[in-house]
Amino acid sequence: MDVYLPIAELSLNVFLLLGLGAVAGVLAGMFGVGGGFLLTPLLIFAGVPPAVAVASQANQVIATSVTGLLNHWQRGNVDVRMGLVLLVGGLVGSTAGVQLFAVLKRFGQVDFVIHIGYVLLLFSIGTMMVVEAWRAWRRRRANVPARRKLHQHFLVHRLPLKLRFYKSKLYISALLPAGMGFAVGVLSAILGIGGGFVLVPAMIYLLGMPTVVVIGTSLFQILFVAINVTFLQAAQNQTVDIVLALVLILGGAIGAPIGSRVAANLPGFQLRGLLALLVLGMALELMFELVAPPAAIHTLGEMVRVP
Amino acid sequence: MTCLRLSPGFIRVVVVLLLALGAPAAALAQPLLVDLSRPRVSITSAFRGADVLVFGTIDGPGDVVITVSGTPTRQTVLRKERVFGLWVNAGRQAFDDVPAYYAIAATRPLEEILPPGGVPGTPVTLEERLESVRAVDAQRRRPLDLTDFRQGLVAAKRREGLFPDTVNPITVVGTRLFRAELRFPSRLPVGDYEVRAYIFRDGQAVAAVSRPLVVSKAGFSARVSEAAHEIAPVYGAGAIALALAIGWLAGVVARRI
pTM of the prediction? Predict the structure, then answer.
């Protein structure tokens, strides 16, 4: 059964799309990341114009992050103050990102930037996951308990504009979280991802936030940044395909509970190792496409109806 | 769509044929009568391409050629070039008067119908139709470069199925009636198309008739597309509200299970 996507202007199998959404949902449930980093390249493989894939993906991120945020909110795992500081950066970053996106679109370079952005992104995530899985595996073998230290002190503690974040038990400069929010906001606008897998490690390792509040707080920032990106992409670039987003969201809603159940019953590091290899494989494939001589040198750019 | 069902298209077929056959005087006055099984191709939520039947009468022996051309557009062609080892869209060239879609149907192979080099003033083949295509800011490029882009344009359009390279057959019933099935791909640009039919005798176009064919989004897809472009901020807000509602609902439901 095919469904016509009115903004992407092509028909795709509805079950394929539901399946993609479900895969993203399973990932979201398992690892607490949005899964957008796998979804967007897959949509592009399926023929959706990259600009539409990215913008509709931001719309989908809203749904997954609101589900997750409600969960963490109820358990009191959101540092609202930290979230707001991140968000200030995030809103500025995503707004700038959407403008940049519009400029790239005008010069016909959106596809290339999305493509190479994903290569870099998937390589770094994949490597990070491999390292993380390997460490977990080694820790288990050696029976060494994970290091317990609140956080280390370095540069962050010497910058101006220091703020007290009670829930995170931190007294640090607001500049670093705002800067992180900015960077993730730009990524979110250009690549359509929520940015959880960039933000979460940064919050743990750079800011030294306690792990309990990290995911809830990052979801707080991601939700509002995704709302901003969706609105701006829709208003300015008209690239949000609501039908595409809706099917992906529904698939995700089916996949997320499955993912969280799977995650509860399986040894994490093996699974994460496997996923890491998958991510690296995808990065290699995308890289190969950039380096290998293309099948077609010429492609169609924009088409304007002449009155 | 076939004409077997009693669709409005079929009724149009019958009416035109009855008119043509029952009123020989009228048919004689007009050497060529043409109509389409439907005046509109609607791109709905379940659109997977469409078939349109072109049919009509001719006043005697001769060859029929039908051309279908989409709205003339300004089409940009991108060219990948190798920059620091990566293939990047480094070159771009716009062309004016490029038909969004172009297909041909004929009773016999075109080279048997048309004189070598075609009929002046009557573009039939894709090459002839594209003669009027002009490069935007052509003086900025070397002629060889332009030719490359032009060939790239045709190849890319072919790949997308928008310049089909096969000539569709036209079936002639007796000597007077003809029909041709036009198949449109699922990735069809919207716009005002023109279906043009010619009678060729001895390499001369002796009659020509043109019919409009509107390709437009319809129903739900049309509403969505209109909203996205005309009330973009409202559309964006709606998309956000929808995602929030479903995400919230999914969370509530997941906790209950």
Answer: 0.78
